[in-house]
Design a protein that fits this description.
The complex is a heterodimer. Chain A is α/β, with parallel strands linked by helices. Chain A folds into two domains: 8-298, NagB/RpiA/CoA transferase-like (Rossmann fold, 3-Layer(aba) Sandwich); 396-465, no CATH class. Chain A has 23 helices and twelve strands. Chain A has helices spanning 8-16, 19-41, 46-62, 64-77, 88-101, 113-117, 120-126, 136-143, 160-170, 180-197, 223-230, 247-261, 297-302, 316-319, 322-327, 338-349, 356-359, 366-370, 377-390, 396-409, 412-430, 443-446, 459-465; strands at residues 81-85, 106-109, 130-133, 200-203, 207-209, 214-219, 233-239, 243-244, 269-273, 287-293, 435-436, 451-452. By secondary structure, chain B is α/β, with parallel strands linked by helices. Chain B has one domain: 3-Layer(aba) Sandwich (Rossmann fold), CATH 3.40.50.10420. Chain B has a six-stranded parallel β-sheet, sandwiched between helices. In chain B, strand 2 (79-82), helix 4 (84-87) and strand 3 form a beta-alpha-beta unit. The longest helix of chain B is centred in the first third of the chain and has 15 residues, at 2-16. Classes of the chains: A alpha/beta, B alpha/beta. Chains A and B meet through helix 2, helix 3, helix 4, strand 1 and helix 8 of A and helix 1, helix 5, helix 6, strand 9 and strand 10 of B.
């Protein structure tokens, strides 16, 4: 997808002022966090699984070329075809060519973040194909012509009423449904024929297994399976970093993935696909293609953000992020929102264009605490800020402010005098209540809460008064 | 050509990062869970946790009458998509059955699982001439027979059994309950695109409570 217009600031402002979005976010916030915590508590060796998963990924990344070759050779020995795409444009061309050769008309899609990353739907629609997103969340946002706002729950920003409105507009001749059950049923009926008409089925690939030449998807709805089984051609889109050595390694990740993502012990469907249908098979696709997308990943491998390549796209970091919880995914402006997006988006789309993302973080560390593959997300966000400053991207106003603060901080006498003055002025303004409901320059902060005034003397004054070391 | 290009970039990146190649030793994995005598109980508990229903049957020959009883309880037609190995069982006349891939209006499929996983309560379907993939996903109701002996403790045991048969099949489907979605207001709703109900017939498990 193309980056959304505007800045993070402007999109966040709009998000905070959007009552439907705020209602949807209120629904979602406590749910995923509580469900993950309960699912993790049921497992005694969750922490050891995290260690093992991180170590497997590190080992693979250190020999990524070897594992990819082994994987690709195995796929091709079983009648599949592996395509390497160096960037998004390359990946789009490869898939357009597959669709052309298949003489396709209808293309069904399972949820794939890589296909969003490479902007696939737009070009396939321009080519005149009927492109149908079949994951319910993706289907909803396709009807709404919006990008996903969460990597595992793409329509999380939509309320039930909004979904009902969309379906009523897009499914003429059906009575309006308002219940969740009714809406899910309506989508089931709307998509059933599409599955059977589908010529090319495109899915993601959560894991690629070198040992057996297998791609794995993990879903709850069964849409990915209908997509890849009923289409004549199955295309898997995946990042080059998704390869793992063996089926036993897969088990380590599967024990972590659902628990971290949705708080389930396992998703409903875990599907291991290997090659096209075999001689004598009654069903399944006739062709099987895997498109492995680099698109900047090999560059990440060399640099300070390598740890990010361990990511298994579970969404736990955004589920636990207070900033994501306040503004939702669209504020982040591209496919990957939340903490993981604050690192990936600048790397994929430019440090300068996405200056705000790593800076819109409180470094509270909740994301890092829950990441199943132990990506040091807050450290990487800090590193990203560091890279931005080194590249001279910090806005002049901020640079001046930091410069002024730095200068004052080096004059201890002046610093302490200003500190005392500021503290006294805040106390004066707060009055007897000890808190103020507005403060010039901090209106955004005081709009929803009171600012307490500093109490008593400054730290240094108290230190001195108690005879602390100089 | 692209393959060499991408692999070349990866190799260049790896060799430019000092010490990276040296990290390649694969770490030990935590031992997967085992359940001993409780294996079947764990399996059926997890089936129920994932909204499956189940019953025990003494032998596969009992399957047709149990399936018919299940259909009649729900007032469903006697039209079935049946896995080829189950076609030759002693089905009553009134059952109209076929073993072709599932059609768009398929209502009920009866399958035979390759394995079960006690850890997660998953049914494992091994695609091939004996197990059409569409039977697992297209019908509204999925009835799955599984031999108690085929229930494994964990995934790793299933992988070992699959490896013993050679290359992986086109599809190895792990199924944990009826299809579901949480995409409308995070409310879990069963029957998204796949089956609305999954009923398990556990074979040769007479001594167990159903």
């Amino acid at each position: 997808m193309k980056a959304l217009p505007g800045s993070f600031d402007s999109r966040a402002e709009a998000a905070l002022a959007d009552p439907s979005l705020q209602k949807a976010l209120q629904n979602f916030k406590p749910l995923f966090v509580a469900k993950r915590a309960a699912a993790v508590a049921e497992l005694s060796d969750f922490e050891r699984l995290r260690d093992a998963a991180a170590a497997i990924k590190d080992a693979v990344l250190s020999e990524l070329d070897v594992w990819l070759e082994r994987y690709a050779d195995k796929v091709e020995s079983l009648g599949g075809k592996v395509h390497f795409a160096k960037d998004a444009a390359d990946a789009r061309e490869i898939i357009r060519e597959i669709c052309r050769k298949a003489d396709a008309r209808t293309i069904c899609k399972g949820k794939s973040m890589v296909s969003e990353e490479i902007g696939l739907n737009e070009v396939l629609e321009e080519d005149g194909y009927r492109v149908v997103e079949t994951d319910l969340g993706e289907y909803i946002i396709q009807l709404a012509k919006e990008p996903p706002s969460h990597i595992i729950a793409p329509a999380i920003h939509k309320t039930r009423e909004q979904v009902a409105d969309l379906f009523a507009q897009n499914h003429p001749g059906r009575p309006r449904e308002d219940s969740v059950a009714g809406l899910v049923n309506e989508a089931r009926h709307a998509l059933r024929e599409r599955f059977f008409e589908s010529d090319v089925g495109i899915t993601g690939g959560n894991f690629l297994i070198a040992e057996s030449g297998t791609s794995v998807i993990v879903t709850n709805e069964g849409n990915g399976d209908l997509t890849q089984t009923l289409s004549r051609v199955h295309v898997v889109t995946s990042g080059i970093e998704r390869v793992i050595p063996t089926l036993d390694d897969l088990s380590v990740f599967l024990r972590l993935l659902a628990r971290s993502a949705t708080g389930q012990d396992t998703e409903c469907y875990t599907t291991l696909s290997t090659g096209p249908r075999r001689a004598g098979d009654p069903d399944g696709p006739e062709e099987y293609h895997v498109v492995l997308v680099d698109n900047g990943r090999s560059k990440m491998l060399a640099g300070r953000f390598r740890d990010m390549l361990r990511c298994i796209r579970c969404g736990a970091c955004m589920n636990h992020c207070p900033v994501y919880g306040a503004v939702g995914g669209h504020a982040y402006g591209w496919v990957y929102p939340g903490p993981m997006g604050s690192i990936l988006t600048p790397l994929f789309n430019g440090l300068a264009e996405n200056y705000d993302l790593p800076n819109a973080c409180t470094l509270n560390g909740r994301c890092q605490a829950v990441c199943p593959v132990r990506i040091p997300l807050t450290d990487l966000i800090r590193t990203m800020r560091n890279e931005q400053v080194k590249a001279g991207l910090m806005p002049a106003s901020q640079r001046r402010m930091m410069g002024a603060w730095g200068w004052v901080a080096r004059q201890p006498g002046l610093y302490r005098a200003l500190e005392r003055l500021g503290s006294r002025m805040l106390r004066l303004r707060a009055g007897r209540r000890g808190a103020m409901s507005s403060l010039p320059g901090a209106e955004a902060w005081t709009r929803v809460r009171d600012l307490p005034a500093p109490q008593g003397a400054t730290f240094i004054d108290q230190w001195k008064a108690r005879g602390g070391d100089q | 050509m692209n393959r060499e290009l991408v692999l070349h970039e990866i190799r260049r990146a790896i060799t430019s990062a000092p010490g990276l190649r040296a990290r390649s030793a694969l770490p030990p994995r935590p031992t997967p869970p085992t359940y001993g005598e409780q294996r079947i109980e764990r399996f059926t508990d997890r089936l129920v946790a994932h909204a499956c229903t189940w019953e025990a049957i003494a032998e596969l020959d009992e399957l047709p009458q149990r399936v018919v009883a299940w259909l009649e309880q729900r007032q469903l037609d006697h039209r079935l998509a049946v896995a080829p190995p189950l076609m030759a069982l002693n089905w009553p006349e009134k059952v109209d059955r076929h073993s072709r891939p599932a059609a768009i209006d398929e209502s009920v499929a009866v399958s035979l699982a390759f394995a079960g996983i006690a850890e997660s309560g998953s049914l494992v379907m091994y695609s091939g001439p004996n197990s059409p993939i569409t039977h697992n996903y297209v019908p509204e109701f999925h009835l799955v027979a599984i031999r108690a002996d085929d229930v494994c403790d964990n995934q790793e045991a299933v992988w070992a059994n699959a490896r013993a048969l050679g290359d992986m099949p086109r599809a190895l489907n792990l199924i944990a309950g009826p299809s579901r979605t949480g995409d409308v207001e995070q409310t879990i709703q069963l029957g998204a695109h796949g089956p609305r109900q999954v009923h398990v017939l556990l074979v040769r498990a007479k001594d167990m409570k159903s």
